[in-house]
Amino acid sequence: MIKSNLHKYSVSAMCKVLKISRASYYYEAAQKQDESELIKNIVDVYKASRNNYGTRKIKIDLEEREIFVSRRRIGRIMKQKGLVSSYTVAQYRPQKDTCNESKIKRSLSHKGCPYDNAVAEATFKIIKTEFVKNQTFSSLYHLQIELADYVNWFNNHRIHSSLGYLTPVRYRINTLKKVV
């Protein structure tokens, strides 16, 4: 009704008569943006990360593609599309020993000293979460092939928050440029 009478009356006057706020009118009148391209990019980044990236890393990856969007919007789209990072799990759940967790060592640190191998422990956690979880390997050869592929992806494509959202290879190249 307001749109059809814009040529006769002001928006403010019509909103007063109809007892609605101007903000409500402008909110409803605004065209909803087409998110199909954004959704496609978010799904691409999520799948390229092997279902591991959450909103922070997806945001960084999209910014490299010159797509600027909030983490909140990314999270809403991920929820709508059912995209859940492999890190989004209940904190404490019973561990089931599967055949895969037997082709991996549990710990490298000495009993009672959790800090002597913290880096190795953190790396094993990442490997278990991103690589071992939800996979079954039919043979040792199959495991070796998949592990080599994962290590290549981990070093050349996976961005790490501790490295300033760079891949390990890119971080090393940047560091060597500063030294030389």
Structure description:
The chain is mainly α and 180 residues long. It contains eight helices and no strands. Helix 4 crosses helix 5 (71-81). 9% of the residues are buried.
Q: Can you summarize this structure?
A:
The protein is about 50% helix and about 0% strand. The chain contains 8 helices and no strands.
Brief descriptors of the model:
180 residues, mainly alpha, 8 helices, elongated
Largest sheet: none
What is the radius of gyration?
Answer: 25 Å
Oligomer: single chain
Low-confidence sequence ranges: none
Compute the average pLDDT. 85
**Proportion of strand residues:** under 5%
Per DSSP, the total helix count is 8
Q: Determine the fraction of residues in helical runs and give it as a percent range.
A: 40-55%
- What gap, in angstroms, lies between the N and C termini? 69 Å
